[in-house]
User: Which sequence fits this backbone?
């Protein structure tokens, strides 16, 4: 009865980089309204063209993409990508009151990617159902799951080693 759809939706703010930088510099508190006038995802959801019936909690944090890795500077490369809300959490329930948003925010202190992670905490009303249906219809492959974890750890360790060997860059100083 509930659906959560989350990840990098790749929707952007449809405004020039300089304009978005100006809007961000004028934000007071956590009112992101001036940015959301230009948010592609919010606008197409309002007109009902996609994600019909899905909702998103109000956003009270700055754009989570695109950062220079390791610091709090939006894209300083020659591409100068516009800061945007690409990572989102959408949800849908048969009954709106069955999902309550407890928290929806970004993790601004995690700087290992050009995206800042977005987290959501929800209180969800679960209705009892049948318990004789096997989870995942018995198709869960533990070996495949463990191999995925091993690959992610290997990639993370290689990235950390590369960052450790690099004392500075033209973008940020790493200590």
Assistant:
């Amino acid at each position: 009865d509930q659906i959560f759809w989350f990840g990098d939706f790749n929707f952007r703010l449809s405004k020039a980089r300089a304009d978005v930088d100006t809007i961000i510099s004028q934000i007071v508190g956590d009112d992101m309204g001036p940015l959301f006038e230009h948010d592609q995802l919010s606008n197409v959801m309002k007109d009902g063209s996609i994600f019909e019936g899905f909702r998103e909690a109000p956003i009270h944090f700055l754009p989570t993409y695109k950062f220079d890795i390791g610091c709090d500077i939006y894209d300083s490369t020659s591409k100068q990508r516009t800061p945007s809300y690409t990572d989102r959490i959408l949800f849908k329930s048969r009954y709106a009151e069955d999902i309550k948003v407890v928290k929806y925010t970004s993790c601004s202190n995690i700087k290992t990617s050009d995206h800042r992670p977005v987290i959501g905490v929800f209180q969800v009303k679960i209705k009892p159902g049948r318990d004789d249906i096997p989870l995942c219809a018995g198709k869960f492959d533990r070996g495949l799951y463990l191999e995925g974890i091993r690959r992610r750890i290997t990639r993370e360790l290689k990235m950390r080693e590369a960052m450790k060997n690099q004392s500075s860059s033209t973008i940020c100083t790493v200590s």
